[in-house]
Amino acid sequence: MHNRICSIILSAGLLFTIHCGYAAVPVQETTAGTVIKEEPEKAGKSGVFNPGDFIFDHIKDAHEWHVLTINHRHISIPLPVILISRNLGLQIFMSYNFKHGEQDYRGFRLETSGENKGKILEVSDGSKPLDLSITKNVAAMFFGIALIFWMFLSIGKMYRKNPLKPPSGLQSFLEPVITFIRDDVAKPSIGPQYERYMPFLLTVFFFILINNMLGLIPIPPGGANLTGNIAVTMVLALFTFVITNVSGNKSYWKHIINTPGVPLWLKMPIPLIPLVETIGVFTKPFVLMVRLFANITAGHIIALGFISLIYIFGEMSSGLAYGVSIVSIAFNIFMLFLELLVAFIQAFVFTFLSAIYFGLAIEEHHEEHQTEHA
């Protein structure tokens, strides 16, 4: 079993390298839909490999799910485009109609360069319609959610059918993880009321973990940088922020507005401590958001940076490219193992800190009662 897992991971690392390598080949598509390689003498600056564009094209969202490029032909999965325009109303069509940005469709254009690269604009006035499209990240999120539903509904069915049967298969993997979140995260951090928060903690943990893992798979339904998208991490942090402050008891808000045990001159006439505590209410979810976004995105950038070295040195000499490729692939496989560890760590950290915030919000401060009793 261990050897099989290792072989799968190594294969995924090599596949990721090959996938990125194909995608790095400069291509140009004609309006007729035929993809041809740029001629060196005509390519000019566009024929030079640009590592920045290569890296950010892979980690950002897109209106199609790129698989790879073979013989200078793009192979990608088209996704639904849903636009609401003031001029053209509601428009629904598939992204392949844009021909990778080489063709306008129904009065819209997919920008392939400039500050609006990757955005859909109206041809007539260049305005941005309301874009409700099913992009790569949205499709990956739907797949991750469906996978979570399947996992937990299936093991729930197994427990209902045979409640006394020892766990096996998927159960044997998930049960220790769920027990760990309950016994080592929720109970110590929240206290007796931990059961109220277990559904959210388990959901956010497995959502982050599964999407982190899917992001390491280079082909659909993997390959999307979902948890490296600041909008996704912002929403997850916003959930923690809302639950924390809605759950906050009288003692929680008293410690923010009128912190006990602090000298009066730090509260009046300038409310220094209340101001610091109020800022802390917002910085906690902000830190959650940025930490997850930065760590996942940094891992993807480093891995793609190693791949970029092959093409950078390849423009100097083919011999250098072959030599660097060995080191690059080795480091890329190492980064894959490191990213597997980071996938678990970031899911745990987000869940653990959320549990701590919930515990602080509902904690009863006994020192106040002792003071009153005295």
The helix-strand sequence is: HEEHHEEEEEEEHHHHHHHH
Number of helices: 11
Distance between the termini: 63 Å
Radius of gyration: 25 Å
Total number of distinct structural domains: 2
Provide the spatial order of strands within the biggest beta sheet: 6-5-9
Structural class: mainly alpha
- Overall outline: globular
Roughly what fraction of the amino acids lie in strands? 5-15%
If you average the pLDDT, what whole number results?
Answer: 82
How helical, in percent, are the residues? Answer: 55-70%
Major sheet characteristics? 3 strands, antiparallel
How many strand segments?
9
Q: Spans with pLDDT under 50 lasting ≥5 residues?
A: 1-45, 368-374
